[in-house]
## 1
Amino acid sequence: MSTASVPLPNWITYGLIPLLNLALAFLISGLVVWSIGENPFEALRLLVDGALGRGDAIGFTLFYTTSFIFTGLSVAVAFHAGLFNIGAEGQAYLGGLGAALVALALDHYVPWYVTMPFAIIGAALFGAAWAFIPAWLQASRGSHVVITTIMFNFIGAALMVYLLVNVLIVPGNMAPETRTFLEGGQLPKLDWLMALFGLKLGPAPFNVSFLIALVMAFLVWVLIWRTKLGYEMRTLGISPTAAVYAGIPYSRTVIIAMLISGGLAGMMALNPVMGSSARLQVEFVGGAGFVGIAVSLMGRSHPVGIVIAALLFGILYQGGADLSFEMPNITREMIVVIQGLVILFAGALEYMFRPAIVHLYLRLKRA
Amino acid sequence: MDYFDTLVSILGSTIRLSIPLLFTALAGLFSERAGVFDIGLEGKMLAAAFASACVAYLTGNPWLGLLGGIAISIVFSLVHGFAAITNRGNQIVSGVALNFVAAGLTLVLGQAWFSQGGRTPQLAGEARFQPITLPFADALREVPFLGPLYANVISGNNILTYLAFAAVPISWWVLFRTRFGLRLRAVGENPGAVDTAGISVTWLRYRAVIVAGFLCGFAGAYLAIAQSAAFIKDMSAGKGYIALAALIFAKWKPVPVMFACLLFGFLDAMANFMQGKSVPGIGEVPVQIFQALPYVLTCILLAGFIGIAHPPKAGGVPYTKER
Amino acid sequence: MSPHPAIELVGIDKSFGAVHANKNINLKVEKGTIHGIIGENGAGKSTLMSIIYGFYQADRGEIRVDGKPLTIKDSQAAIAAGIGMVHQHFMLVENFTVLENVMLGAEGGQLLAKGVTGARKELKRLETDYGLDVDPDAVIEDLPVGKQQRVEILKALYRSADILILDEPTGVLTPAEADHLFKVLRVLRDQGKTVILITHKLREIMAITDEVSVMRRGEMVATRKTAETTVEELAELMVGRRVLLRVEKGEANPGKVLLSVKNLTVKDSRGVTMVDNVSFDVREGEIVGIAGVAGNGQSELLEAIAGIRKPVSGEILLDGQPIAGADPARLRALGLAHIPEDRHHMGLVLKFEEYENAVLGYHRDARYGTGPFLDLKAIQADAVEKIEKYDIRPPNPRLKTANFSGGNQQKIVVAREIERDPKALIIGQPTRGVDIGAIEFIHRRIVEMRDAGKAILLVSVELDEIRSLSDRILVMFAGKVVGEKTADAGEQTLGLMMAGIAA
């Protein structure tokens, strides 16, 4: 008999097992580092130091964290409704268009705090719109949303390159990007927040979108566990037949869940586009949509878990960048490897240790 | 420029661009027909490209390079199998993970070993697969129409190109004319039927993903040591996903897979060709249209406008014996 | 007769976690006989057969085939030992042809071409020997269910099985198909094959078996020669102590018609007509029971009334309002409650905490929250109230629903649907997999609902349950209502009607 039906206490399911999975991912990453002739412990020290050692390092770490919170929430919301949205990358890309259009339209006339709500709405709307067709195909044709969102990532990338090269580019300029937003179209940095902790932000682009991300995390928690819609999404995600019995409309719920998911992914664009570079650039998303998958899996689709996991990946991204300066042998892409291993062990192999732990647990309980 | 010459040149590059798609889509065909979804085709191709470039560089032998690519690709397949078959993990998640591992690891190792920014060293001529001139290609070149087609499209490709086209009927034959193929198709539709017939579902699915790894090895080797002369950062550039689209577009059937790959290869060739050119009456056609078309077409198919695509019934579902 | 039994089980024991599915089972099946194994749902029959077929391993005990002890570690070993199995849910590849399905696992070589000719010849032979005719080139999904089952039998015979196990084979068959199956089984026996027939239908046992073994709660309680036993004895052995399902209830006082079904036709997902032009009324203050062998359209009828399955044609009226095709949410709002047949997949979300399930389907109700929000306090208070009233154990609304026993899970569903004070209540298999105590409790609630003037439609495959609860009984057979009887109709009469024999 399999061990799948043996219940384990929560501290094992939500604490020990994810930690073991994570530890294994890092162990293998350490082996990779060791195999190319570097000391993994030294690398880890450099990484942590590079991510948390100074005020500006923390600022960069939190900047990345912000993006990952958005995309992690995006993946998680869809996941609760039983949908696997791999399209956060493309939805965020399009979200950037929405944010940029708002910023370009308003930055001459109003201060940032007037632009911001419109930019949030613009980013969310464009991201949601990009999730709509896959959502509709899933709802009405049963086409797997995994496949269609992948396709829409590529279609979105082609569309954005076209727009940036041919439409949004500053005439006479070579770089495919919009003009730089004026202050009215930028999200201010959070140096005051850092100052509260006695830290100096320096050049790090840690900005107001971090606060927006935290608000969204709270709103997602409310949505999933405190609203009727969230209840319906969870019912559909766990048991589609029970959802039919309960009169929960399949198409509507799927489409709304995907629109919210796309909207959250779209809002991610606020952070790099309006909070950092102050213009829309090609490939500004830089894989954050995919990191969202890892973050959501590691955070067990719970907003608190997602914020923590996003912070971890923020540390990896910032620390990894720093590490590649200190140890030129280790390129930045090492974090992509770690990210892949985390997804592998925390996601696809999440139950690998379970049988062994069940045996151990039962034996300890008997003893 | 002569229209016919243009056509010949576009067809030639269509063939070249289709080959990695074709190997990869056939790989996906074996895996998905056995009920194991494989988003990780891209990663396997990339890892194989890197491995074959490394081995070819070290040994100077393209065949050993190919073998190295196949070996690494199969290792990735086995990890996918371990997650998806043995541990009954989520197949999509596993595929996504392996794509990241491949994307990262090729660069980390490439930089650590060769210090060329993730590139592998340029391969000398004999370390690559060279174009093969078919018999009479030069003699027939002057024959109107067919001559240039034969000499420039059909002849002059490397051995992997011909193997790719040979792989299509072979795949068909294996899937529909052998015991292995019958069982493989059965396990993708109803693993219970296979299990109760006394056949191991696990071993069968492992063999299917190994075949997928094998074929992705060819795709990677083609990229790195036939089409190019080195591994370059992210050189698979989404081809694994286009192959996946082609597989869906072809409704999981081998011969249509070939045509879908040729179509998508043609669109890619058009994108290159149209760069900076303008069409009379329309003006400049953005290349992005050609880049997006494979995906747009596949989505239109999925929307039900070009027939209905039935994926293998047990696809993506881990097999559990318990009832 | 050969000296050894075809198959002999000695001390077979099997547990799944805390569930002791098979306890020290001993069984002898003689060669060339049809041996019935009968027992209620959950008695352990299927587990036992899965052990023989190598699907599960026994924890203890021995299997002897033709006198030789065997370890059957997988299906392959079972096939090699000459054992074939026809599963309740067919193990067929639906987009394969009959020939491909038969050959799967016994292809006769690496290349299919080699085996095909031989397979065709063998199928031909089996057709003439046993009267099992199926077009070898037909695709499974185009075949009717009866023919699909024939393919399953052919698969076993093609692998030269001497012992054929059939698990609830008639559940999915029309009576004509079932008759044909029995004919085939007799031919098989007469040609020297051994047949093990698992069923919970007494009539089938009496009709076709030579010997019968009775299982009850994981134990083998008796084996009898069929000719020397009676339906009554077997029934008693199956149930154990004679459970009196008499429910205390007074005369019904039916009022006006509340639920009315007119000329309703419903198809299942395969497009097969399952409910065929059915009409009936349910009045206030009465329980109308629908009796029938499982698979005769009762499930589809319930689903159509509950708004889960769109009817093809016909009308459904609730208190005079047409409701055919309305969605379940609207039906609830109109006062139609539904206790579904399958609580695991429909009535409950097993991963939810108890209180979350206590509002499933009613979660949009104003008393459980305002606007878009859920009022968890109100929901939990409501759940606690129901837990107390229905004695749901353990009394913990925060416990995961999967951790409640079957009876308590069913009480969660019953409480939710009844406490809404609906006008009409439709109920499917209210006590399937539920312990005796909970059965009595649930039955009492249903009768109370009737006495409170509700219209109740009850579907159950347990004839006893139908007879003890209903005020009127409709019998469904092959998608049609074949007759109506009063509550005091005899079991014999109803049984015959359920078998489609007399009206």
## 2
Amino acid sequence: MNTKIIKRFKPAVVIALTAITMLGGINQAQADETCQSPYMAKITGQEDFVYVWTLGVEGMGDGQDKLVTVDTNPKSSQYGKVINTLSVGGRNEAHHSGFTDDRKFLWAGGLDTNKIFVFDVHTDPAKPTLSNVITDFVSASGGVVGPHTTYALPGRMMITGLSNNKDHGGRTALVEYSNEGKHIVTHWMPTDEKLGGADKAGKFADGYNYDVRVLPRRNLMLTSSFTGWSNYMMDFGKMLNDKEAMKRFGNTVVAWNLHTKKPMKVLDVPGAPLEIRCAWKSENNWCVTTTALTSKIWLIYEDDKGEWQSKAVADIGDPSKIPLPVDISIASDDSGLWVNTFMDGKTRYFDMSDPFNPKQTYEKVIGKQVNMASSSWDGTRVYYTSSLLANWDKKGSDDEQYLKAFSWNGDKLVENFSIDFYKAKLGRAHQMRFGAYSLYNKFSKLESIDDSSKQIAQLTGELVN
Amino acid sequence: MKLLSLFLKVIAGVTFTSQLAAFQALPQQQESFELAPGYGKLAYPLPAKGSYQLPPLGKALDGKILDEQGNSGTLYDIFAGKYVLLSFIYSNCSDINGCPLASNVSYKLKSAMQKDSLLADNLRLVSLSFDPDRDKPEVMRLYGENFKYAGNKGEWKFLTTDSMQQLSPILQAYNQDIQREKSVNGDQSENISHILRVFLIDPDYNIRNIYSVGFLHADLVKNDVKTLLLNSIPGTTKIVNQSNVVSLLTRPGDNKEGYDTLNYTTHSNALTEREGKGKPADLLSIARNPPLGLPALPAQLLAGLSAEKIALGRKLFFDRRLSLNDTFSCAMCHVPEQGFTSNEVSMAVGIEGRSVRRNSPTIFNVAYATRLFHDGREYSLEQQAWGPLLAKNEMGNPSIGYVIEKINNIDGYRELFEQAFNGKGVNMMTVGEAIASYQRTLISADSNFDRWFYAKQQNALSISAQDGFALFTGKAKCATCHTVGNDVALFTDNKMHNTGIGYNNSMGIKPDKERVVLAPGVFIEVDREIIDAVGAKSPADLGLYEITENPHDRWKYKTPTLRNISLTAPYMHNGSIGSLKEVVDFYNKGGIHNEVLDPLIQPLNLTDKEVKNLVEFLQSLTGSNVDTLVADAFSAPVGDLTHSDPNWANSGGFSNED
């Protein structure tokens, strides 16, 4: 199926590249789409929608979490507007979401209530519906709390946990579910007591988890490590004052055998390594992560002996000010990396042409706080949202909540539109995922049919009514 | 009164001569009228319960007997299921230091059973006649009548045998040589010469002690029974000179000891292995037999306890469905392996991450607390249980009825409540009582300190810890509030005091920079304004004043027990102090000055060595059974949402298609 979709979109790539060339030769191609599982269909042309997994705020609107659909097609009359909201009940600590490999369903986890909301995004991409709610994630998984990354593997979802039901600390697991929503197996993170065959390469084997990414060509799966429920749910200021709590952050990245799902090596990456992005080019056998507390870019790379190693390769801002790097986004040609720093509200662009020496080449303040960054496949559009965690977001007037869309021409970001999520009584804007009619051989019922999409469809003879 | 008359009658007809040979080892028997110790107050302090062993002395053998109604049976039928104190007597016995002594001690034990349900439930008194010719069942029944005024609670059986032939093997088995005395004219007297032996037999028919005239005493028997009960609890056996108390299970599974240094290495436990370390304990017995150093629980509390209620309470304690959004059980803040508190956060975090303004107190020994919560606003565990259930920033349930309805709709609970509460279902009283029942069993003592101080084991406590104890009760004046008694120690006066910690919080007195650890051994100084930008305003906290509105009660908080204190960091009502040394340093400086500072808190002028010794003493207060209680908790199932539980999303109501 993936092969089929990729074939189908070849013309789009050609058109997009032509357009890029005409626009003045942008050679960067960083993208949220490249953050997706390599097993998944991608939107290589214009995204029609951004789905924003949004946290409800007590006393604001209906106060509950919702999937907010924003029209992002410039040709649409609704461009830059919220066109749908779907409330899911409760404040679940909405956080990350991920599509199934067929991209028909979006799985969105609640870090607090451990519910996983499965949205149907293919029947009507403009109006997702709730197709299933997995309520028994904790009991089915054997005690895993905080479903975070929902990452597509063929026919199933790999879900990272952040915590557990015994002490609400950071020890946790990776959990596999079938696309149909059935628990398959729980892989506990390696701990000193049970390394599971892994080599404890350094001093740490904390058993924590956060994100998961794969490098199929090297049979590698990587997981990172954040903190447990008690911390990610705690008031951020209270936590910074709490000396015990501050000891409970992850300091590891685990290299797994992707095929067997067995941990191979526990690497020291101190200071809470969060998002992981893996390089795309076949000669680039490395992935990258950033540490939230110590503010560094770390490279996880395969050395000339075939061993996976970790290395701090750059500082992000001034680590002594705790800029708190959060979301990152890698270019599809591995040449650059967006890094957002929450505390100063900045997005920073790093040149990754030498991955062992990343250099910051651009920065811009997006808002008083910033968390997620998502860019289009071609790298010309970058979207930002504001919320980190309900109780970590800034307080008072610094607590801006938004979705902002920018154009990126390689030199600077130019704002296209902005939605104030508080003014709209929506809540805290967190993760974004893109939707497109073209993924499902569908076209908008609205007046604005994307001409290029239509052209592609005509070219491929797959126009449907 | 009848008993007294019996004794008077017995004393009136005393004959002493025949027993003298048997008692020659006991000087007082040379003086015919001197009463055995069993009649008076014990002349020496009782050894601490559980501080010694009573190894089996041999099997108590079986035999055929007749009960008071003349029914035939066996001794084993009579012995079954309880500890037994077996005396051989005969109804006409006139030797005051013989059978009447045995019956007098039994009478005292029966009287004690009226208030001591543990004794009543576990000990059975048995008097067997060795005069079957005269002591027919009816005679034994009448003999027993004399003792009924001791009270109804507890059992005392009066047995005889069919014939001398039936009795003989029993006498032989229990080494009871008897001979009928002869009167001066050569006729057989009614009196029987025998050596007094009273047997303590365990439920496995092992003889655990044999009492003779010199030391048959009700207090001693009681002590022995309780020691045996205590020793019968797995993991709580107290052996003299046992190595020091070291807890293996009571530490965070994610141990961060040494995180402040660059040398830190993880010592993390696997959660999957935690379950394997689980082992159910006989919690009811623990509650009934507090370990060395703790007093018995009040009889009325014990009377209400049952294994069913405890098991149900434990299930509730670990059930995360008991919160509004199915994420919070009691155990999420009172984590068993973290001293039934939380070592990982200074102040608790409730549902949706809501800030709780105080540190989770330990549940260990909460059975002895007369006031609950740091501000002492509750008085019984039954009532207290509802506080966290309904607090918006703890478990967040919207109403009492909501909780009851939810429990009723979770598979299995309704039946368990009905079984535990005599048919009563889930209601506000039974929920509170069940949770309270479990919490009351989390009793832990018999620490190295207890063994040294109460059981007089000289080697149980290090010299420096002994010095620390001298400071504790002396120069440092800790024991003024953390009380230590002659027989038992709660290490709390259950009263409220102002140390100044609360004052500091209310006045917002904080350093301009906070030293924050970013990774093992990596720190930075963070400006206060950065922390404040991402932190909610601290909630007000005035302690006891909030309950009384008495200005003198500002910033007063309850004295916590110090038992197991090394397992329950961080310290103080707001968890603001991370180590015992820092706590001692805090008091050494005289707390924090404020207008209502407790006058008991003054600078102590302790030297560094004294601080160290005091800390070492505090570290000696870990109970020997903490791992038993933790292993029991590990064996408890954790309740999490399943598809059959009440939840809107379980009923298929998630489609947004109207």
